């Protein structure tokens, strides 16, 4: 049988699709990748899955004005009819309510291909068509996104501009990793990962004798095969530990007064808080130990170590995905400032090593391939994670980053490329909120929990059914993505769907800019190539790139060190903060008057943590980390992700003592619950966990029965509260629960079933 080969890219890596008889039969990893992701093995199965949406479908109840969107049946319609319905609904809501009636932020990762990037395409379409209510910020590092501009004038150290691994390997003696370095997370980069280099860098770090300290509630955050000290810590309490380390440096005179004077403002105010001059409580090691559970002498020793040799302090993004998530990031910067190594090779602070593949990867500052998204003419947006608040309380006022806003009254939701019925906190609350709008339109490839709650569902192609260009500004490659198989069922490209809708609304040529698919592939590549040329990096012409399947952006000649230029000359390289310096106290933030995010880093107890009163009733802290075997909810039904399930349920990791105290056994099914809801989970005993902490990964497709999810989406249990009034980021890691053996019958969940679909008559 003849076999053809087609280069392509996923968020979890580059590969060649092998095709026989119009079916993808395998994905061969990109040759130069030293450590390809096993998730490549899930692509073929998902592409040809029976869960694919075959034809445009309309929810039966919607036709009768029923807004209870769960468990309903669908009727298939022709593309023409479906597009007329969507165009009609958009026109109706626009005419009656203006752009404030349409919610189109459409948060989500979509595909790695940048021409067919669904979230960019839907926003381009809705913005060109008059605007909509958008979403600002992200779930990944939402607290950092709005805090860091006040502190260091930029967010770029969170999205990847950190001191690179070559500099660390050459200079660092001690890496302190809050949240550890779980290699599983480094499988992915939004826009695709050409090389998976983290295992290699960590091995080299070990070989040159760099000490690694992992501070985390679980030893599993120590990378496989790497020796590290483990400091177990109660979830959500890292700020207390950092403050005590800062206190130690001040108390022992180990702080760098010259650095503080030249590069920072607000040191004295913060020091007054640390020493207790301001509130009578010294934030010393004994104080912190009572909060975070780390012995006081361990804290003091760690503080001495980072100040007396070249050290890199890095914090996983998870630390700030919690209530008061602004604080650990601000405290980390403050601690690094006291140690005085910011801007020195291998020293200072960093964020997200191992949170994403690309963090710390040496690379050039060049643009990635992108479809342009114009400005939203409606100038309306909510903080990304405030969706349920908005739907449940139109007209209500809320605070965000120093300003007061009002929630709009949403009549129509349009989503393509994301899955709020996996990603949003407190799913039962979102289920209530989802009854509010009149119409919900979704583009999806599979019958996901979101697609099954839409009124009009339009089937979208997947990457291997279309041509594209993929890559991220963080990766050393840009990839050609060749169409490998024809569209499955009647699936269409998101781009073509929006182009047809734009035609019905009279702006087809504006939307397409006169380009077809290959025209756009050429255009985004040439845009990147031009940007590279300006920076002295030569990429081959498009046709050569397309035929070869990829182009390489050569590594930089020098090692990148965060804030090196600022340290060399702080006057010529002022930070974009009001003072031009690092703000350990910010007058702007203090001026907002937010008790939940005051003017300098502080310890604020979250509403739910192991030291809270609520822990009496809900004694276990639930952490919901990123899944090893899938990307969020993507690939969940495939064999790799299925192989980890326990009796068909999503696993929950539990300390043997916590299990024994509840009569729970390894491999048993439990009910995990709190006041917000409940889900089933399969128990995996894990002695490397701190007692009192349980861990579930995100992304199991939910199967709710009442308020019980029978499969195990942990967002059934998480709290839907903003990190603070400053950033309003998601607080997914702030959740207390109880666990009990499940008494009911364990029948297979129905999360991976299609709804009843009636064929077109
Ligand atoms: N409890 C808890 N919750 C969390 C987190 C946590 O740590 N804890 N993490 C949060 C974070 S950091 C993130 S980034 C979010 C992730 O949340 P999402 O990005 O929403 O999750 P995905 O599962 O990647 O959803 C992408 C969806 O887009 C669809 N899709 C892919 N390609 C295409 C395409 O070409 N066209 C169309 N139309 N659709 C496509 C996929 O089928 C999938 O359903 O989750 C957040 N939720
Ligand atoms: N395989 C895979 N990789 C992924 C993703 C995926 O879906 N699958 N998603 C990607 C995305 S969108 C993002 S944003 C990143 C997120 O990257 P991260 O936010 O870094 O990932 P998490 O797995 O949520 O958290 C990392 C570790 O932090 C620890 N941790 C949690 N809370 C605390 C705390 O309070 N204190 C301390 N010290 N440690 C804590 C947990 O043990 C957890 O294992 O991951 C990316 N990588
Ligand atoms: Mo994320």
UniProtKB/TrEMBL annotation:
GO terms for biological process: anaerobic respiration. One of its GO terms (cellular component) is outer membrane-bounded periplasmic space. InterPro entries: Asp_de-COase-like_dom_sf, CT_DMSOR/BSOR/TMAOR, Molybdopterin_N, MoPterin_dinucl-bd_dom, Mopterin_OxRdtase, Prok_Mopterin_Oxidored. It comes from the Bacteria. GO terms for molecular function: electron transfer activity; molybdenum ion binding; molybdopterin cofactor binding; trimethylamine-N-oxide reductase (cytochrome c) activity. Its cofactor is Mo-bis(molybdopterin guanine dinucleotide). Residues 8-48 form the Molybdopterin oxidoreductase N-terminal domain. Signal peptide: none annotated. Residues 52-503 form the Molybdopterin oxidoreductase domain. It is an enzyme of class 1 (oxidoreductase). Keywords: Metal-binding, Molybdenum, Oxidoreductase. Its EC number is 1.7.2.3. Residues 620-734 form the Molybdopterin dinucleotide-binding domain. It holds the Pfam family Molybdopterin_N. The keyword Metal-binding applies. Belongs to the prokaryotic molybdopterin-containing oxidoreductase family. This is Dimethyl sulfoxide/trimethylamine N-oxide reductase. The lineage of its organism: Bacteria, Pseudomonadati, Pseudomonadota, Betaproteobacteria, Burkholderiales.
């Amino acid at each position: 049988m003849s076999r053809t080969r087609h280069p392509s890219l996923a968020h979890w890596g580059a590969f060649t699709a092998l095709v026989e008889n119009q079916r993808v039969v395998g994905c061969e990893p990109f040759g130069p990748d030293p450590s390809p992701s096993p998730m490549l093995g899930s692509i073929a199965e998902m592409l040809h899955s029976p869960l694919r949406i075959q034809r445009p479908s309309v929810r039966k109840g919607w036709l009768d004005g029923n807004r209870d969107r769960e468990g309903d049946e669908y009727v298939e319609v022709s593309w023409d009819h479906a597009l007329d319905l969507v165009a009609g609904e958009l026109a109706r809501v626009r005419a009656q309510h203006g752009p404030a009636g349409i919610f189109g932020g459409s948060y989500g990762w979509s595909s790695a291909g940048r021409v067919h990037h669904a979230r960019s395409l839907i926003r381009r379409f809705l913005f060109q068509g008059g605007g909509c209510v958008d979403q600002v910020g992200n779930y990944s590092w939402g607290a950092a996104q709005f805090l860091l501009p006040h502190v260091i004038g930029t967010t770029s150290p969170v999205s990847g501009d950190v001191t690179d691994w070559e500099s660390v390997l050459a200079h660092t003696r001690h890496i302190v990793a809050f949240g550890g370095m779980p290699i599983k997370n480094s499988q992915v980069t939004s826009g695709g990962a050409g090389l998976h280099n983290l295992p290699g860098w960590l091995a080299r770090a070990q070989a040159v004798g760099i000490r690694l300290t992992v501070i985390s509630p679980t030893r599993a955050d120590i990378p496989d095969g790497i020796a590290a000290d483990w400091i177990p810590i109660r979830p959500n309490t890292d700020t207390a530990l950092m403050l005590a380390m800062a206190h130690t440096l001040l108390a022992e005179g180990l702080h760098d007064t010259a650095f503080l004077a030249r590069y920072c403002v607000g040191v004295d105010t913060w020091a007054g808080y640390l020493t207790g001059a301001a509130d009578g409580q010294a934030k010393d090691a004994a104080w912190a130990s009572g909060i975070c559970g780390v012995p006081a002498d361990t804290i003091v020793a760690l503080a001495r170590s980072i100040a007396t040799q070249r050290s890199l302090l890095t914090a996983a993004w998870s630390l700030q995905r919690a209530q008061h998530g602004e604080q650990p990031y601000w405290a980390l910067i403050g601690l690094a400032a006291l140690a005085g190594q910011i801007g020195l090779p291998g020293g200072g602070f960093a964020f997200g090593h191992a949170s994403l593949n690309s963090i710390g990867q040496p690379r050039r500052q060049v643009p990635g391939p992108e479809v342009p998204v114009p400005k939203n003419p409606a100038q309306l947006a909510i903080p990304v994670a405030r969706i349920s608040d908005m739907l449940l309380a139109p007209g209500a006022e809320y605070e965000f980053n120093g300003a007061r806003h009002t929630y709009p009254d949403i009549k129509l939701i349009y989503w393509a490329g994301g899955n709020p019925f996996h990603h949003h906190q407190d799913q039962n609350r979102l289920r209530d909120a989802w009854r509010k709008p009149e119409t919900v339109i979704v583009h999806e490839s599979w019958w996901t929990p979101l697609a099954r709650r839409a009124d009009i569902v339009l089937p979208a192609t997947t990457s291997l059914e279309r041509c594209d260009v993929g890559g991220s500004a963080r990766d050393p490659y840009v990839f050609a993505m060749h169409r490998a198989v024809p569209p499955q069922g009647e699936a269409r490209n998101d781009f073509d769907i929006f182009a047809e809708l734009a035609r019905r609304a009279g702006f087809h040529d504006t939307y397409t800019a006169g380009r077809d698919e290959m025209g756009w592939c050429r255009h985004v590549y040439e845009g990147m190539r031009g940007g590279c040329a300006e920076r002295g990096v030569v990429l081959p012409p498009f046709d050569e790139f397309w035929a070869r399947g990829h182009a390489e952006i050569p590594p930089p000649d020098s090692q990148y060190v965060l804030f090196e230029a600022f340290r060399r000359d702080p006057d010529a390289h002022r930070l974009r903060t009001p003072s031009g310096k690092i703000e350990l106290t910010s007058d702007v933030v203090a001026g907002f008057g937010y008790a939940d995010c005051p003017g300098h880093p502080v310890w604020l107890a979250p509403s739910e943590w192991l030291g809270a009163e609520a822990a009496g009733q809900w004694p276990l802290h639930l952490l919901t980390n990123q899944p090893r075997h899938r990307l969020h909810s993507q690939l969940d039904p495939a064999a790799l992700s299925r192989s980890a399930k326990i009796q068909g349920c999503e696993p929950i990791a539990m300390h043997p003592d916590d299990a024994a105290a509840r009569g729970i056994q390894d491999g048993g099914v439990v009910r995990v619950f709190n006041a917000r809801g409940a889900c089933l989970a399969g128990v995996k005993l894990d002695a490397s966990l701190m007692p009192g902490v349980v861990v579930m990964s995100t992304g199991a497709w939910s199967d709710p029965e009442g308020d019980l999810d029978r499969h195990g989406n942990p967002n059934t249990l998480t709290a839907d509260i903003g990190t603070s009034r400053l950033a309003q980021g998601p607080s997914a890691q702030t959740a207390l629960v109880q666990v009990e053996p499940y008494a009911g019958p364990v029948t297979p969940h129905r999360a991976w079933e299609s709804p009843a679909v009636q064929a077109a008559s």
